[in-house]
Design brief:
With 424 residues, this protein is α+β, with helices and mostly antiparallel strands. The chain is built from 14 helices and 16 strands. Helix 11 links the parallel strand 12 and strand 13. It is elongated. The N and C termini lie far apart (56 Å). Bound molecules: histidyl-adenosine monophosphate. The site of histidyl-adenosine monophosphate (HAM) has 28 residues, from strand 6, strand 10, strand 11 and helix 10.
Length: 424
Amino acid sequence: MPQQFKAPRGVSDLLPADQPYWRFVRETAVRVAESFGYGQIDTPVFEHAGVFLRPNAEGTDVIDKEVYLFQDRGGDELVLRPEGTPPVVRAYLEHGMASAPQPVRLFYVISAFRYDRPQAGRYRMFHQFGVEAIGEADPYIDAEVIDLLRTFYDALGLRDYTLQLNSIGDPVCRPAYIDKLRGYYSDKLDRMCGDCRRRFDLNPLRLLDCKNEPCQPFKADAPRLIDNLCEACEAHFAAVRSLIDDLGIEYNLDPLLVRGLDYYTRTAFEFQPRVEGSQSTLGGGGRYDGLIEQLGGRPTPGIGFGTGLERIILNLKRQELDVGAGRRPDAFIAVADEAAAGKAMQLAHDLRLAGLTAVLGSPGRSLRAQMRHASAVDARYAAIIGAQELADGSVTLRNLETSEQANVPLNSALARLGGANAAS
Ligand code: HAM
């Protein structure tokens, strides 16, 4: 027997019953991003490996453990995008957007791929809504990006989330802080997890957000980056906080928030749902003032966020939010005589052109079976065409909610069913 397949671990089919959620979330993302003046960008699913495997990215889980890296048949090293930011920066540079008025405001709704340990809200293929504002260093843009994300959540009707905010400094103040942090942790490493022993050398900031039990007791007394910011970073952060206050956005200052990707500078933020554990961040982002240079551009500031659509949908379902139903068929065309199949298909065609939805019954099946099918797809009307209707150019319309039935001339069916061009 040929083998039957299941989808690979950690990836899902998005079935028709879930599509109203997906449509609602995607449409809201587009509407909100456009209302802030962000333009949509689609980048390819895979990129040259170097876009992601930059020397600075070493030491992050996403790059060390999770990238889907492959060689194509021509020998090129490619990576399935694990996130949206570096591809957007690559496109910004490639298409000369640096010479447009800055900041360039972009958004995307994409699939992304990480070889992660699958669990609720964590998948190997997932979807992100993200924005990137490139070419602006002023703190107003940090506040705008955060405002955009909370506006998106509010527009969806998501409640019960908190904003966590931090500043993780820049190349001026961070090296001295990292030395301090290493100094603090150096005599504690033997009591810490294996991941942290590795992080100590490669990416010591991540010591602060380790989730493993043995490492927890050491966090409280660790030196805090916000107490070690240089003057410029401190002034920037104060301005961001003041704008966020002006916007009435509540937040918690979280000195342990460091983010999982390598490129962050200064502002870092995450939105957490109140009800769930630590793996459930709804969305996060921050400033990446060094990334454009790492990808071959001139020094250029940037900031953005990514938010996971699967996690949003989990939360929408948990809150039992009404996202509307999928589109019901206006008519199910039941073919009561195989000779009428052509006429039935012509009627379905006319209805569809008039903006209605029409589903065709299987001409070889009994009328009863077709009527059962009509109920199963929740059609408003059954339009029945058999030998009699074929002979006198009519159709029998049955309202499937009231069971009222009428035989009407074929050319008036459209008007009865409410088609857009019904009058013509
Ligand atoms: P990130 O924090 O790695 O940031 O991911 C952003 C969001 O994507 C997460 O908060 C989560 O909702 C979702 N997400 C991440 N991994 C998974 C997964 N395995 N399964 C399901 N959802 C997931 C970024 O990706 C940055 N590019 C954000 C950014 C944009 N920073 C600046 N600009």
